[in-house]
Amino acid sequence: MPIFVTPFARLDLIRQPEQQAEPLQAFDAADEYLLNHLHAQGLPAAARVLVLNDNFGALAASLAGHARVTSSGDSHLGLLGLQANLARNHLPADAVSFVPASATALGPFDRVLIRVPKTLALLEEQLIRLHGQLAPDARVIAAGMVKHLPRAAGDLLEKYIGPVQASLAVKKARLLLATPADKPAPVSPYPTRYRLDQPAIELLNHANVFCREDLDIGTRAFLPHLPKHLSRMHVADLGCGNGVLAIVYALGSPQAELTLVDESYMAVQSARENWRAALGERPVQIRAGDGLAEQPADSLDLVLCNPPFHQQQVVGDFLAWRMFQQARAALVKGGELWLVGNRHLGYHGKLKRLFRGVEQVAATPKFVVLKAIK
Predict the structure, then answer these.
(1) Where are its TM segments located (predicted)?
(2) 45 and 154 housed in the same domain
(3) Could you read off the pLDDT of 15-50 as tens digits, one per residue?
(4) Whether pTM exceeds 0.70
(5) Domain end residue (candidates: 113, 147, 178)
(6) pLDDT digits over 220-262, tens only?
(7) 39: burial class by Cβ within 10 Å (0-12, 13-18, 19+)?
(8) Burial class, 62, CB count within 10 angstroms (exposed 0-12 / middle 13-18 / buried 19+)
(9) What total number of domains does the chain contain?
(10) Most distant CA pair in the chain: distance in Å?
């Protein structure tokens, strides 16, 4: 396992969720470049440091004990990674404070270290929330691998923070150094909203929600085929996003008891607000979590899922396969997993390895809707 070495610390780091023979590191050259630059510039012992979008805690854990560190991001798996890596390296659990991206980290901060996220809307919202949270002479440093660092990231830093200087590339990583300037209080364009015709509901979407401007085409293919039940059912929307699958199902199944889970705090925030708008005070459980890892075994009758095929910049079916395993464990015997997926991902064959029956419910040229029976 590679060791992450910087002037601040020497750390043994792991990714979340853990998998055997993990092919990827929990840090990269952009993390290393950012910390080397921070050390070269000097970090006062009492400095307050805000770390944004620290994938698995490499930055925050490195700075633990060197400054007062607050970490903020939109990934619950990122939080689990931070907690695991603090413990793994014998660092106090309270060495880093964590604020979910659905809330605002309160400054003033002397240094802000940003890993540029895949979704630039998330970066924009985070920069907007920095207004009024920077100490005098604060420095804002964003980092990313060159291939994942769009010009628009620098434009956003310039718009909301101040003049930006791009560093030279080192090990295919680059820094964007922003000098804070006096700017008027910005108005956030988030959350966004769109309407569905069937059923007639409006959906609100915070900045990091997948397909924020319109219903994604996979869900659009899934909605007409959602099952309906008149009996009391225990149902989970796994990877719920803005909650649309659960809400539409609940409208057609008035006795069902729903649990909505997503690893994105902004998705959970959106789902809560959308559920309340569509279903009022109808009881529901909505939480940020590592899928159904916390769900008791044999406790669900139905799981609905539109699984992701990427984690940050990494594309693959590892997370989907893990969600299928979690669903099987949580379902009662005879319980069903209903999902939508791209045809080319071959979920039908994968599900057959876990479930006793797999049926194709519907298909479009691009998507299939599948039902797997435990």
Answers:
(1) none
(2) yes
(3) 988 776 667 899 999 999 999 999 999 998 899 999
(4) yes
(5) 178
(6) 999 999 999 999 999 999 999 999 999 999 999 999 999 999 9
(7) middle
(8) buried
(9) 2
(10) 65
